[in-house]
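Handoff note, outgoing to incoming analyst
You'll be picking up this chain. Sequence as last confirmed:
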Amino acid sequence: MLLLTAKGLRSLAGGLQAWENPEYLFRWRGFLYLLGIPPGAASVREFSRLIALRGMDRALRELRGHFFMVVKEKQTHKYTCFTDNNGGFTAFQSKTAAATSFLEMVSYHGLTSSSLDRDSVLEFVNFGNVFANKTLVEGISRIDRNQIIRFGPNGKSVHSKNLAPIDAGNGEFHYLPFFEKMAASIKDYRLSVDLTGGVDSRLIAVLLDYFGVPFETTVSGMDGMEDVEIAKEVAAAMGTTLHVTRPAIDNLEDSIPEVFRVSDGLNDVFKHYRSYQHNQNRVKRGIELALSGIGGEFLKDELWLQDFPFYTSKTARLDRMFHMFMLPIPCKNDYFTAEYVSANQKLQNGTLHALTRFALDTNTKTYDNIYYHYEFPVIGGGFITAANRVLPSYAPMVEPDFVQFGFHLKRRERFFNTFHRKTISKVNPRIAKIRTSEGGISVSSDKWEVGKDIQKYVWDKGTRLMKVIERRLFHGSYTRQPADHPEFSTRIRESRLAREAVELLKEEKILHAKVQLQDIHDAHLSHFLSLSLFMEFLHSTKEQRHGT
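Most recent structure output, in case you need it:
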């Protein structure tokens, strides 16, 4: 990993890329490119030319991908660092340092359990994430996509990139030329495209195919699962190779320490377990870049489901969105010691209050704004960053201009997957007619197909809403169709890790002494296990410092 202070780079490891000219030394981690130019050094060379023409702060807005970059000014020995402009790559800062790894930053500062942020711990065990650029400890935060950090003789300073907000402009963006230039940049890479039964991954695949870029397709899940079977059908129709990663749990407990490292201690380790296997298989096949459809949610009505079909209301129903999708099953107060109970009681109202600052003039704009600024950098960024620790990975539809384009689409363009229908039907009408995992509808603009799909679409939305409501009322589990191994949850609950986690969190005075493993709901168990792994990490770094 990479760690930077005013004295320079303090920690280097494999995977760090570099390029230099007489004025600057550039180092970066992750996947980086400029549209139309090959990724990596070629794009950084052009970036250095843009710096000379426009200055650093304006030039960096042209960079694409998911990355963290450090730029050293050779003459002054000053350092500038920043993440990508879309929030896909997660990096961290303290008062004196910046790093690509939360765990490395914790170790560097020698933090112990006394540094835990109680409110963040409660966020983590409820949601499986910590939002608003916070982390599990005080004094370390995520670097925001809109921040530039500089180190010089006077220490560290933080500046703004002045990126345009999501509602800026009118959404004018020519997405086909964007994909054409992107395709030109990556055409010589060995590419692997996520392909499920959904519409977002299909959109990526057909556009790359349209611009003549060769690639394999891949899906993770069990045979017979809808996403897998539809992916097989689409791949066969496109004439591409489909690789299926069937989740394995044989070495679950032995694999968890490595998955914990890759997910960097700030995510639900067990949510990353399947994707880690998936990306490892890509590496074994010699894949050089993985592409996903993350971000496609800004082109359809997925983020608005709680208000279906009333998408032009002036009132955002934040409480409905929160209780249906963000936290349908909150942690019971009975889980916790007295110190944590009071904060847990305040968590829901506190989070809802925090979300009000993202309110815009309509309900759907507000939901988009919340997802983009509050949820995506943590959830989407967590998965993208973890993937980039295994192999270069990219989700092109989360680039700011693409998101702004989706944000400004007319509501009817996002209803009924209309944007996907128009685009996929235009570039590959045959693939558009293949059913999707969204109620079996197609994404075809053919009048006959549209007529058949309308009823299926409404039924699918209604069914999903009912299942979400049932989960909220009866505290059951809900996924559209589980992609994990069917015994995954049972194996977690029966593991030695689970038993030891409960005891450790009791010792740390987080869980109440009377709580038993069977008392913890499935929705929360993996969160508590992930937290216990972080506590073990804190203990191990303390022992290393004391030589024990």
